[in-house]
Amino acid sequence: MHVGFYAPMKPPNHPSPSGDRTLAQLLIEAMTLAGHEVRVMSEFRSLDILGKSDSQKKLEIHGREEVDRILNQATSSVLGVIDLWFTYHLFHKAPDWLGPEISKTLGIPYVVAEASYAPKQQNGPWQAGLVQVEAALRSAAGVVSLNPRDRDCLQPFLDVKVSQLSLLPFTRQSQFVLQKQDMLKTQLGQSLGIDAQVPWLIAVAMMRKGDKERSFRMLASALAQILDLDWQLLVIGGGEAANLVNKALAPIGDDRVRVLGVLEPEGAQQYLDASDVFAWPAINEAFGMAMLEAHRHGLPVVAGYTDGTATIVEDMVTGFLTEPENIEAFAQAVRHLIENHDLRKKMGRAARRKFLDYHTLEKAAEALDRFLRSLTSS
């Protein structure tokens, strides 16, 4: 099958790393693994952060022009045959101006993945984007939901014949190196100048203003409550809020914290393999690809509860999900894992099993393949 792929918020080849970009790339990889030919149809970004009507109107006009460009290519055979259009991550700040019109004109199924609908924007600054989200949902032949929080809000706009797939977050497989953890931890400890004999906590996230910065601040406040214990914190990430994050972490002490900056996946993996607990407050997080990667490496996770994080972390089994933004509860959960070596290992093994059973690229490829073929065979 030839699949046309589009991500209105951020194209999959965008230079700025993020969970959104990662998942777009993974969706393409999963469909390719299933035997489909996937083509990125456009790099047009419909994202409007500030909620300004004039900017949104310009984006709409640009979107209409992009529709004409793509359809002209289709009719001139430059584009080639497309059997299905697949749009990933549309919401009121980044609506899909391309997929519904192109799919209708070409007579092909229109599929949306990770769509969300915010009723409070019906009279808000992104009203035009919200209306276009409604139009996209009404045009959809298939809907893929990755976050349970979004699914219920979409139902009023979907035709009764729309096919729906609940897809668990997923990522690539990685060799598990638990048997090498002690040696790896000793080597990294020597290079970083930190104690390899104490539990290592790790957090992986971009340092952006907003919820990411708030999560870092909460992490610092929580860890400040357990300074009576021995532990080290490794932080992987960077961004425009790096100075603010570093300032928030400073009271914990330079001897406790190592900020490693932005690392390539291979570089980050060795630190995940060597660490003992993944700790991240996950304020308003959709699901958190970094938590999924932590489970892939057999790490128990302490995170704040959201519907999305609960699709990854099984509370009391693969880690702890604490009340959102409850600093005391988060600190106590981290304390409990630091103080209980056997529990850390038990939860880590359970995390690894859960990942292998439900969250691999191969599992997602199988589910997406069945879903997409059902849409084109009817």
Task: Tell me what you see in this structure.
Helices cover 44% and strands 14% of the residues. The chain is of the alpha/beta class. It has two domains: 2-170 and 360-377, Rossmann fold; 178-358, Rossmann fold. The strands form two sheets. It has a six-stranded parallel beta sheet with strand order 2-1-3-4-5-6, sandwiched between helices. Helix 7 (211-223) links the parallel strand 7 (200-204) and strand 8 (232-236). Helix 7 (211-223) packs across helix 11 (327-339) and helix 10 (289-296) packs across helix 12 (341-358). The two termini are 14 Å apart.
Features:
single chain; 378 residues; alpha/beta; Rossmann fold; 2 domains; 6-stranded parallel beta sheet; 13 helices; 14% strand
What share of residues is helical?
A: 40-55%
Which segments are poorly predicted (pLDDT under 50) over 5 or more consecutive residues? none
DSSP strand (E) fraction? Answer: 5-15%
CATH-level-4 superfamily name of the largest domain:
Glycogen Phosphorylase B
Mean pLDDT: 94
Which value, in Å, is the CA radius of gyration? 22 Å
Shape verdict: elongated
Protein structure class: alpha/beta
Please give the order of strands in the largest beta sheet: 2-1-3-4-5-6
- What is the terminal separation in angstroms? 14 Å
Based on the coordinates given, report the CATH architecture of the largest domain. 3-Layer(aba) Sandwich
Largest sheet: 6 strands, parallel
| Tally of distinct domains | 2
Order of helices and strands: EHEHEHEHEHEHEHEHEHEHEEHHH
Q: What is the total tally of β strands?
A: 12
CATH class of the largest domain: Alpha Beta
CATH topology of the largest domain: Rossmann fold
The number of helical segments is 13
